[in-house]
């Protein structure tokens, strides 16, 4: 394996072995370019959908991509609305955000005591999150990308057997959302060097509305009824993965204009912009 590049921080050095293996397997002779600032490389892998129809593939291949180390914060989003006033609280179109959009901020450009600068920004619609990502030259991660990154444990790429991770995750699920969210930089890193994917806030993904089948009624003849919530465990990869079912339920209940006190986002980027 080639020597570590100077950009590998202490947190990234533990990933050096799998990085080298990744690029040997893929036929590349060197490590990839340094990730953009405040992003990490998530290696290529396969995502196993929680629910799928009989004709759907058992696994979804995911190309390597870059992901933000931590969710977008209030301070980050403030810079966005300062330069894009149409996304300020009093200016945003009701088509793109509901009435609770950024309501915990003290004003259009004033965070106030309920929105600490370093805390994840919440009460953000999908439209607003996507607009911010584009402003950054990035995009929202897909469900498959997000779930692949979140499948890692604290100390290894397979988190399903990480008892500490599961303890932290289910303790978070059992607690109500605090009125003031903690600093995103304090969240624990997972194996890939990502903070707070699990146990901080829920996060928007680009294709959230593909989490479940859609249609105006159950009389639709083109829909696979095995994917409705009434028989939600049919074809499930792991009926004991309660947290994954919670994420699926949230995503399938959302509209793009919705905002909640526990829903934020982070950005992704392809390896080749």
Question: Would you report the number of β strands?
Answer: 7
Task: Write down the secondary-structure element order.
Answer: HHEEEEHHHHEHEE
The averaged pLDDT comes out at 80
Main sheet strand line-up: 1-4-7
> What profile does the largest beta sheet have?
3 strands, antiparallel
Low-confidence stretches: 1-18, 23-29, 213-237
Would you tell me the structural class of the helices and strands?
alpha+beta
Rg is 19 Å
Number of H- or I-type helical stretches: 7
Write the layout of secondary structure elements.
Blueprint: H1 10-13, H2 16-25, E1 39-42, E2 45-47, E3 60-62, E4 65-68, H3 74-83, H4 126-135, H5 143-150, H6 163-174, E5 202-203, H7 242-253, E6 263-264, E7 268-270
Parallel strand pairs: 5-6
Antiparallel strand pairs: 1-4, 2-3, 4-7
Q: What does it look like?
A:
The chain is of the alpha+beta class. The protein has one domain. The chain contains seven helices and seven strands; from the N terminus they run ααββββααααβαββ. It has helices spanning 10-13, 16-25, 74-83, 126-135, 143-150, 163-174, 242-253; strands at 39-42, 45-47, 60-62, 65-68, 202-203, 263-264, 268-270. A three-stranded antiparallel beta sheet has the order 1-4-7. Strands 2-3 form a two-stranded antiparallel ribbon.
Would you kindly provide a brief summary of this structure?
The protein is of the alpha+beta class and 273 residues long. Helix content is 24%, strand content 8%. The strands form three sheets. Strands 1-4-7 form a three-stranded antiparallel beta sheet.
